[in-house]
Design brief:
With 208 residues, the chain is mainly α. The chain is built from ten helices and no strands. The protein has one domain. It comes from Thermococcus guaymasensis DSM 11113. Keywords: Membrane, Nucleotidyltransferase, Transferase, Transmembrane, Transmembrane helix.
Length: 208
């Protein structure tokens, strides 16, 4: 297994923790899910400067080293793993988990239970499957680096996720929209746009 694929697998394994949102929604309902996402979002935003600005981390580590050197060792191990899976644009900018959590908050707040669960799950699983299949089996590449195989993997996984929740017609619409959004990496970040566009397309289709 190549180093690039190992890194991608590690990144997507963390990305799949986003499935806690639909799982909590299923088990506890909308209100608790909104509270959970809000708390997670606030924590992520508070910690984000420490991830981006190395000088802040260094100052903290100097102080902690005087109290407990083992804690500093643990922090440095975490830093290494975080740096390893970061995208280039995340090194000095907002990370994917911030966008993902914000989108989840919007989707759960504004859309129905079935649409919210479908959108968050598709964005989580579809993105992971597309990346892994695309990197490992992608043979037909487009100019943006994406592959036909990866896009098909996303479409099929989205279809299988949405169908039990909303039916075949909704599944086809949501899968198609999600595949297009994932392919073009629509701004501000695909972890945000994927959830929002899938949810919006399912909602608009329900009005027809």
């Amino acid at each position: 297994m190549s180093t690039g694929l190992k890194t991608e697998l590690k990144r997507k394994a963390i990305h799949l923790t986003g499935l806690t949102v639909p799982a909590i929604y299923q088990l506890t309902g909308r209100e608790f899910t909104l509270t959970f996402i809000t708390v997670a979002f606030v924590v992520f935003v508070v910690l984000e400067p420490f991830r981006i600005i190395e000088e802040i981390r260094d100052r903290i580590k100097v102080k902690l080293r005087l109290i407990n050197p083992e804690v500093v060792t643990g922090i440095e191990v975490i830093e290494h793993h975080v740096t390893e899976i970061e995208r280039e644009h995340e090194q000095e900018g907002v990370a994917a988990h911030i966008y993902f959590t914000l989108a989840s908050l919007i989707v759960v707040y504004f859309f129905s239970r079935e649409i919210a669960i479908a959108a968050v799950t598709v964005a989580t699983v579809g993105d992971a499957v597309a990346a892994i299949i695309g990197k490992n089996f992608g043979r037909h590449r487009f100019s943006n680096g994406k592959s036909l195989e990866g896009s098909l993997a996303y479409f099929i996984s989205a279809l299988l996720i949405i169908y039990p929740l909303l039916g075949l017609k909704f599944a086809l619409v949501g899968a198609l929209v999600g595949t297009i959004v994932e392919f073009y990496d629509l701004p501000p970040d695909d972890n945000f746009s994927n959830q929002v566009f899938v949810a919006l397309s399912l909602y608009l289709f329900s009005l027809l």
